[in-house]
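Reviewer comment 2.1 asked that we show a complete input and output for one of the modelled complexes. We chose the adenosine-5'-diphosphate case, as it is the one discussed in the main text.
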Amino acid sequence: MRIAVIDRDKCTREVCGYQCIKVCPGVRMGDETVSKDAEGWPVINEELCTGCGLCVKRCPVKAIKVINLPEEKGAPVFQYGPNAFRLYGLLLPKQGSIVGVIGVNGIGKTTALELLRGALKPNFGKAEAAGWEEIKRAFRGNEVRGYLEKLERGEARVSAKQQYVDRLASDEGEKTVEKFLADGNGGKSANAALARELAEELELGPCMKRKLSQLSGGELQRAAIAKCLSADAGVFFIDEPASFLDVRQRLKAAAAIRKAGGRGAVVVVEHDLAVLDYLSDYVHVLYGTRGVYGKVSGLKAARNGVNEFLDGFLKDENVRMRKEPIRFEVRRPGAHNAPAAIAYGKLVKKYPGFGLAADGGSVREGEVVGILGPNATGKTTFIKMLAGVEEPDEGSAPAKIAVAYKPQYLKADFEGTVRELFAKTEVDEFTFGEAKAKLELDELMEKQVAKLSGGELQRVAIAICLSRKAGLRLFDEPSAFLDVEQRLAAAELIKKTAKASGVPSFVVDHDILFIDLASDRVMVFSGNPGIKGSASAPTDLREGMNSFLAGQGITFRRDPDSRRPRANKPGSQLDVEQKKTGEYYYAGK
Ligand code: ADP
Ligand code: ADP
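Response of the prediction step:
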């Protein structure tokens, strides 16, 4: 079985003279393997297509993908149209449980949520939506059928949190948080007592009277979560709750979401695996080929699902998702022996209303120093001082080093394509080649930089920062907007490039698995957010993590199989024991 997808956003129709039709050997033999529909869009007949790949190669805008399916999959549950993306299987909302969803971008997570919300209806690959009788027949004997029946009767009572919370600032900017919460969600009224409780748990108190247009990304995110969870609903869909939040806020939001599980069924999409693991009772993994098709795995216990994802192999499905497993090292060989490469003295910066004091320290050759700390304690300010973008008020940044710097907020102000941008940048060809492959940049080369999405721009910026000739590399929140696979790839690239080149790097991030994978040592920021921040010198990973997590009141254990860090539930036996012995970031035996 074969799937052909033509991206109509890219396809130019007559501009290229229909290269796909011209080069197709089937067409030359007189078959209608590729034809034009009434509107002039090319359509590939998947039954006649032999998968020779000539049209894929010749298409000047790379709009065509043809994939041989490894197994007979039957009809998809939903397909957007002829030669368009299709989804196989449905997610299963479970009463009283949290179901996490892991999957790369473009694999159908949003499509799957829309189907459960009733915004899309199964069509089993046909042009028309299916009737309820056909849908129920198709899911006979499947646990999801009960949910679909509720949807049919209009009894599903869905409350959803949107993925892009920054849009709230413009869409509903004039509303105060108080009003925003009181309005309820998606036609469901707000439970006022619950909204108050959630606002307190999520520390929204100081923002209640402020307008959405005045809030930071993290504040908008917490307001959106509170709104979704306080609605009088039975099913909660939460798309990417961790974005813009720091580690403590992520786990607080996770705890609030867990509580909502007691009131109904919760489905959460999240790319921060530590948060997803902490949140979920079960997970679905979505696999397939991005932009072409996605398949929903069976429901797995959360721990197993995350471990199988990291391993790159889904056991029950017998599907390999990635060649190499992702490995976490508990002890980091060599990190402590390298000679110091760069030393800096105490750095102080004062803004009206905010002050940062960072202890002096040094970084070793080829090491990656992870930077952790609550929002608004001066992490970006510190990075900017090292980058020479901000002048310290006391002390001075190390002089005479060429610095490669990826800022937190990326500007797409280059006029031209990604290819032209790379051509203008002096890069190390080998590192660049590797970054290009691992971050899948080939598909972006002909795009205008100004038109890149957040995640695409992030991948381009990371690749440039990695492959520029420099004596020090600085990455400010590289995981933002990246999907789970891109995060793991970026973390490994940052680490590998530092080791291979001997150039040290600093990485600010709130994704604990990202920091754990990339870093040899860590630097910890603390203080009173927005008022005063202080930073330690780079220290040992275990010591640094212990001091960071003690400040947050959170403990992590190690998974015995994957060795990844897993957050303990507050008050659990391990949490209590580890707090007693001061082992907040248990290294394991
Ligand atoms: P995810 O949420 O995992 O990023 P989506 O469900 O948003 O994935 O999208 C899966 C695929 O479906 C993408 O390739 C996207 O381009 C495609 N897609 C989404 N909406 C449409 C549409 N209306 N018509 C055609 N293709 C679509
Ligand atoms: P973090 O990276 O830890 O979130 P930042 O370094 O971005 O923190 O900011 C720390 C504090 O300094 C914040 O309260 C921020 O509003 C303030 N701040 C940052 N840059 C400036 C500036 N140029 N002028 C005034 N205040 C600033």
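Residues 2-68 form a domain with the Alpha-Beta Plaits fold (CATH 3.30.70.20). We note this here for comparison with the apo prediction described in Section 3.2.
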